[in-house]
């Protein structure tokens, strides 16, 4: 799984990168399902927006975003959302495989 972090209207510091790397550990259960994570951190007015595009190995792509005033809190909330979405996608694939094997 490849992780790419970009900052738009802000500089991504080493502390931010290491914080994101630490949070990626929360989704290690799905590292074989994900091709790459494209993380964008944006400064908007007095706050921030954290976005991620998840590209799954079977061709689906999902985009999630969180608005926040503290960048680290936003990253944490983003990974909370990612965990839920990845579990949902993983469940869909497992259900699809089950129904395929039952039809055979």
What keywords describe this structure?
elongated; 104 residues; 2 helices; single chain; Double Stranded RNA Binding Domain
Topology:
Layout: E1 2-8, H1 14-24, E2 34-44, E3 47-56, E4 61-68, H2 71-103
Parallel strand pairs: 1-2
Antiparallel strand pairs: 2-3, 3-4
Number of helices: 2
Classified in CATH, the superfamily is Ribosome hibernation promotion factor-like
Order of helices and strands: EHEEEH
Query: DSSP strand (E) fraction?
Result: 25-35%
| Rough outline | elongated
Helix content range = 40-55%
**CATH uppermost class:** Alpha Beta
* Computed CA radius of gyration, to the nearest angstrom: 15 Å
**Physical arrangement of strands within the biggest beta sheet:** 1-2-3-4
Mean pLDDT, rounded to whole units? 91
CATH topology: Double Stranded RNA Binding Domain
Q: How many strands?
A: 4
Give the second-level CATH assignment, the architecture.
2-Layer Sandwich
Low-confidence stretches: none
